[in-house]
Specification:
225 residues; alpha+beta; Immunoglobulin-like; 2 domains; 5-stranded antiparallel β-sheet; 2 helices; 13 strands; 32% strand
Length: 225
């Protein structure tokens, strides 16, 4: 059974990485300490005959407070972002052992077929599945029906011999009257082995060790069904 994955179940992507957040927090902390030193020196060495205007002093204290609050807010936001990332990863742990559909190469182990999800243009009269190896070299072309039904690539060449084990990418060409209307990389089902946090993103480690963003997954299915 295939379960479609929408934006509500996909892992949200964070706009800032942990390194960027840490760098920003350090900069604010440095500004805060510099401001404190300058304000203290100004109060200590002011002219007693012409003391600092009380309104100006109050304004600087207000600025001091704003800097301090910004520093604390950044620390809190960083903690929240880390907690959200861990929660997302924990939620995705249920994907381990499932087959995820995404636009990514598929791994052929020498025997197990690869399930491909083509999406040809409806106006096409011919559909070609272009198979390429990990070097990007085309190794096979297969004519498919003009249909979005999944296709099982057996991993056998035109003579019936198995290809070498490794990663293979699949491109679907939609052709009408000999002209290519659409050429796009097909989505492939791959077994999820592990979930990880990388920066602020949850990534899925696939069977061949490659990694994809959890947010790029469009469907899940149980390989046993």
């Amino acid at each position: 059974m295939t379960t479609a994955v929408n934006s509500a179940t996909a892992a949200p992507q964070q706009t800032n990485t942990a390194n960027t957040t840490t760098s920003s927090t350090s900069a604010v902390s440095s500004d805060y300490e510099t401001f404190l030193i300058m304000l203290t020196a100004q109060a200590k060495y002011q002219d007693p005959l012409e003391p600092m205007d009380s309104s100006a002093y109050a304004a600087q204290l207000a600025q001091f407070s704003m800097v301090e609050q910004q520093n604390e807010s950044n620390d809190l936001l960083q903690t929240i972002a880390q907690q959200m990332g861990l929660a997302n990863m924990a939620a995705m742990s249920g994907w381990v052992g499932m087959e995820a559909r995404a636009t990514a190469p598929g791994y052929f182990d020498g025997t197990t077929p690869i399930t491909i999800s083509p999406n040809p243009a409806a106006a096409a009269d011919t559909v070609q599945l272009v198979v390429s190896d990990s070097d990007g070299t085309e190794v096979q072309r297969i004519t498919l029906p003009v249909s979005a039904d999944v296709y099982q690539w057996s991993g056998l060449d035109d003579d019936g011999n198995p290809f070498e084990s490794g990663s293979y990418s699949f491109k679907v060409e939609s052709i009408d009257n000999g002209e290519v209307l659409l050429s796009e990389t097909a989505e492939v089902y791959s077994l999820v082995q592990e979930t990880q946090m990388q920066g602020g993103d949850v990534v899925l480690i696939l069977r061949d060790g490659s990694a994809i963003l959890a947010s790029s997954v469009t469907a899940l299915r149980d390989p046993a069904t």
